[in-house]
Amino acid sequence: MSGRPASANATQDGVVLLHGISRTARSFRKMQTALEDAGFAALNQDYASRRKALEALAEDIHPSIQRFADGIDGSVHFVCHSMGGLLARVYIGRHRPKRLGRVVMLGTPNSGSEIADRLKNFGAYRAFFGPAGQQLGTQRDDAINALLPPLDYPVGIVAGNRSIDPLAGSMLPKPHDGRVSVEKTMIDGMADHVVVDTAHPWLVRNSVAVAQTIAFLQDGTFVKP
Fold this sequence. Notes:
The protein is globular, with a radius of gyration of 17 Å. Strands 2-1-3-4-5-6 form a six-stranded parallel sheet, with helices on both faces. The chain is built from nine helices and six strands; from the N terminus they run βαβαβαβαααβααβα. The chain is α/β, with parallel strands linked by helices. The protein has helices at about 30-35, 55-70, 85-95, 115-120, 125-135, 140-145, 165-170, 180-185, 205-220, and strands spanning about 15-20, 40-45, 75-80, 100-105, 155-160, 190-200.
């Protein structure tokens, strides 16, 4: 994977990385390094994914993203894992950067999660995944739909088709990544979609997924197998 040629006069693009629920910014370290090697500035943004609803999380991350956007001259892209993609949609709807670029979502349940449908009323699920976990189901009310406006920016979606969790996988239609079915990653208006041979947790550091992410940020399309 080769980086962009260095230039003292180049306008540098930036990438905001948003991890998934119950994960941290550490999960995106490999992706961050690859993006920086490719010539992007990167903000690997941590947030309290299990403590607040999506709309509150969007407000929490806004100050640091605003400072990051103000500090670069190029476009502001987003790369997101799982629920991080929904958070990006909420954030862009509320605080769209002036120079918004492209968005890559890895394993994001854009049409909701069947697992959340099955488990959202169980006390252990509610306690562990918190308010945002209640917003991940496939049945969305008007309030949640209002948080997720239709796409009017380029989005590329990377889905996985392997599972390391037989129990969770039994709740999902095939193909799936053990957390989200390939079908539920899709969304009207997406610019491109690709399936990678890996499971949900590893999408953030799978070499093919990383290379496809950079390809979409640079060219607006994935490399076709």
